[in-house]
């Protein structure tokens, strides 16, 4: 999306506007960018450079890994963290493959 794209005026109810505004704030982007991202997602259009929103599922992995590795000996904690890393790598590979396959196979 560029500044050369045609502007579109829409009306939103106050409650929906507040929800979009809060989501934009949480995802550290403008309301316009939030609306565009949500529309692109709903139509299966996901640009390559789109970051995951902070509230996306799976973004709390650091806390989960710390909880998983909280107890036990240093070797046990390291093993738990290594398992978490393997799981994350598998998830990343899956996301990359889905992105390469495109929305029609997702």
Question: Top keywords for this entry?
Answer:
58% helix; Arc_DNA-bd_dom; Ribbon_hlx_hlx; 106 residues
Write the layout of secondary structure elements.
Blueprint: H1 14-26, H2 31-42, H3 61-68, H4 74-101
Helix pairs in contact: 1-2, 3-4
Give a verbal description of the structure:
Among the domains are: 14-43, no CATH class; 58-101. The chain starts with 13 loop residues before the first helix and ends in a 5-residue tail after the last helix. Helix 1 (14-26) packs across helix 2. By secondary structure, it is mainly α. Helices cover 58% and strands 0% of the residues.
Q: Please work out how many helical segments DSSP would assign.
A: 4
Rg measurement, Å: 19 Å
Average of pLDDT: 77
Identify the overall geometry: elongated
Query: What share of the residues does DSSP label as strand, in percent?
Result: under 5%
Largest sheet: none
Report the strand count.
Answer: 0
Concise account of the structure shown:
With 106 residues, the protein is an all-alpha fold. The protein is built from four helices and no strands. It is elongated.
């Amino acid at each position: 999306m560029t500044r050369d794209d045609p502007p579109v005026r829409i009306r939103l109810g106050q409650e929906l506007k507040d929800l979009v505004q809060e989501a934009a704030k949480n995802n550290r982007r403008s309301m316009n960018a939030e609306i565009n991202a949500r529309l692109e997602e709903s139509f299966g259009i996901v640009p390559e450079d789109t970051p995951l929103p902070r509230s996306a599922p799976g973004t709390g992995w650091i806390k989960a890994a710390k909880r998983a590795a909280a107890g036990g000996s240093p070797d046990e904690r390291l093993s738990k963290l290594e398992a978490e890393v393997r799981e994350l790598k598998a998830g990343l590979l899956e996301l990359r493959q889905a992105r390469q396959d495109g929305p029609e196979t997702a």
